[in-house]
Design brief:
The structure holds two protein chains of two kinds.
Chain A lengths: L5 H8 L1 H26 L2 H12 L3 H8 L10 H10 L2 H24 L2 H5 L5 H33 L6 H27 L4 H21 L14 H6 L3 H4 L3 H24 L5
Chain B lengths: L6 E12 L2 E7 L2 E3 L3 E5 L6 H8 L7 E6 L2 E2 L4 H6 L1 E4 L11 H11 L5 H10 L13 H13 L5 E5 L7 H16 L3 E6 L2 H7 L2 E6 L2 E7 H6 L2 E8 L14 E7 L2 E7 L3 H7 L4 E7 L3 H9 L6
Parallel strand pairs in B: 4-9, 4-10, 7-8, 8-9
Antiparallel strand pairs in B: 1-2, 1-3, 1-5, 5-6, 10-11, 12-14, 12-15, 13-14
Classes of the chains: A mainly alpha, B alpha/beta.
């Protein structure tokens, strides 16, 4: 039964978006995962790729692929880290969560259905919490399915991957996504429209990516790196080194702060028609 | 705590400004248990603002309102449990069917009597299995009505509920109002058409530019109601035959067609007309603005 509560109703509303993002993400990941053995087993190809990448300025490569190039052809984790988890997967997560987070309150308000929903005997706080729970469920599901896919691909290509570390990076990317998803939710809850909420949260996500990744090259940016959620997501390289609990805690704290702003902001303000 | 209240709705100095723009100003309304209260005013007078304040969607600039004797903001959840609501600017979940939407809301209300829901759907001739986005405006309005009535709430707050309904469905809706009243429930209904309010309500509050200018019994209102009458006679008739007839004003006569304004009952003018061969009688409802002018001069009198 899909209409028993706001969580299920929201999951139903978002099932198409969920499937869409899942296809984009798993499709892209599958290409890389299947491409990996080709580099691993073909020394010439691997060397070609490394020298190709080294022909670019080092800063540029670090900005878009991280700093694991040396192990690129020998360690599957380093390959996946550079090709998938450094830019593509986190940005896909952020776009998914930012549109989701802004749509559930600001979007529903914009479409005019919020009045009718709130005429039912449910508190505004419960509406926000259930919508947040739906956002969290799909973000976790997206992460879990991505991991399952990568595990299947690694078995199929006879590649050894550290499962614990893969789980660590999946957990990190889920948290990162939820940071910007709950931010978009909070922006909608304090009264911004759906476009503004998505735009601001997604732009901050992209900016946060650049601050973190460019900081390795441009030392002027170094002091600002610790303000970038990306730094807490990938700074310690969870796919290679395992999860740094402190970093995950920072992301979790950001989510909680955004959720509190969402709850408090939504409780106090006028709903627009 | 049980609060005994004769007033189901009671507002005290209720005021809402949107920035500097006026919503409503110093509104004092009392609606008694079991009555059908019409909230009449032209578009933009502040009817929807009042209703959205009562449901706690927006918060007053100052003043307060009590519903069932409880503060509308502090006890909003308990209050909403006992209210059915039809919004003025209707928006439904377009990708759901009517049945989906009613199922969703019934869960949020901890269940409803589905036999009653189906009866309502039948009475309003509403197909619940169709996707909402494929429905006409009138059919969407029916779903809004069903969701408001389905929990048999003690208080119905209806913002222009007959929008988009054809006359036959409007009549069915009036029956539903009568039944709710018969069960002792209270109805607060906004409208911008006088005849609808006259037809359904016990009392009427008249709102103009954010202020309540009068609260009247519908009976009194009817005795002073204003109508434009047009009578087509089969042959020319002297204008003098109607000048001075009880309640008749502004008589003009041209080629056997008489125009006049009638205040209150039509009885005297119809009897006067019956002395001549009549082809046709047409009445025009005056605009709300005209009614305000005729009742309250410039409308400053409260």
């Amino acid at each position: 039964m899909m209409f028993e509560n706001i969580i299920l109703k929201t999951l139903r509303d978002k099932r198409r978006a969920m499937i869409g993002w899942l296809l984009i993400m798993t499709g892209m990941s599958l290409i890389y995962a299947l491409y990996w053995p080709y580099i691993r087993d073909n020394a010439f190809m691997g060397q070609m790729m490394i020298s190709y990448l080294q022909s670019f300025p080092a800063g540029l490569i670090e900005a878009f692929m991280g700093s694991n190039l040396t192990q690129f052809t020998t360690h599957a984790e380093a390959f996946l880290d550079s090709e998938l988890f450094f830019i593509f997967v986190p940005l896909a997560f952020i776009l998914f969560t930012a549109t989701f987070g802004s749509d559930v309150i600001a979007g529903e308000e914009d479409r005019g259905t919020l009045d009718l929903l709130l005429s039912n005997p449910i508190s505004r706080g419960r509406v926000v919490l259930e919508k947040f729970a739906a956002l969290t469920s799909y973000t976790i599901l997206l992460g879990a399915l991505l991991q399952v896919e990568l595990v299947i691909a690694s078995v199929a290509t006879n590649t050894s991957i550290n499962l614990f570390h893969l789980t660590d990076v999946t957990l990190s990317v889920i948290l990162l996504g939820l940071v910007f998803g709950s931010m978009a939710l909070a922006l909608g809850c304090i009264g911004l429209g759906p476009g503004m909420s998505t735009g601001i949260a997604a732009s901050l996500g992209v900016a946060s990516y650049f601050i973190n990744s460019l900081a390795t090259t441009f030392t002027d940016l170094q002091p600002y790196r610790k303000y970038s959620p990306f730094y807490y997501y990938i700074g310690a390289d969870p796919l290679i080194n395992g999860l740094k609990v402190g970093d995950a805690a920072v992301l979790l704290a950001l989510i909680i702060v955004a959720l509190l702003i969402a709850l408090f902001g939504f409780r106090r303000r006028d709903i627009s028609i | 705590m049980v609060t005994v209240a004769d007033n189901v709705i009671k507002t005290e100095g209720l005021t809402k400004f949107y920035g500097k723009e006026r919503g409503i100003v110093d509104l004092n309304v009392e609606v008694e248990r079991g009555e059908v209260f019409g909230y009449l005013g032209p578009n933009g007078a502040g009817k929807t603002t009042t209703i959205r304040l009562l449901l706690d969607f927006i918060r007053p600039t100052r003043g307060q309102a009590k519903i069932f004797g409880e503060d509308m903001n502090r006890s909003s959840l308990d209050i909403r449990r006992r209210i059915g609501y039809v919004p003025g600017e209707l928006a439904l979940y377009e990708n759901m069917t009517g049945k989906d939407l009613l199922t969703y809301f019934s869960h949020l209300r901890n269940g409803v009597d589905w036999k009653y829901v189906n009866t309502l759907a039948e009475r309003l001739d509403c197909n619940l299995s169709q996707t909402i986005k494929s429905l006409s405006h009138g059919n969407k309005q029916k779903i809004a009505l069903i969701q408001a009535f389905m929990s048999k709430p003690e208080l119905l707050i209806l913002d222009e509920p007959t929008t988009g309904l054809d006359p036959f469905m409007q009549r069915e809706f009036y029956h539903m109002i009568e039944e709710a009243k018969a069960e002792g429930h209270t109805v607060f209904l906004s409208s911008h058409v006088l005849p609808e309010v006259e037809r359904t309500c016990d009392r009427v509050g008249i709102l103009r530019e954010g202020k309540l200018v009068a609260v009247e019994n519908v009976k009194d209102l009817k005795s002073r109601s204003l109508r434009h009458l047009e009578i087509h006679f089969a042959r020319p008739v002297p204008r003098e035959a109607f000048v001075g007839v009880n309640g008749v004003r502004d008589v003009t006569m041209e080629n056997g067609i008489m125009h006049c304004t009638v205040v209150g009952s039509l009885d005297a003018v119809i009897k006067a007309a019956s002395a001549f061969p009549v082809d046709n009688i047409i009445t025009h409802e005056p605009s709300l603005e005209e009614i305000f002018m005729s009742f309250y001069g410039q409308g400053d009198k409260a």
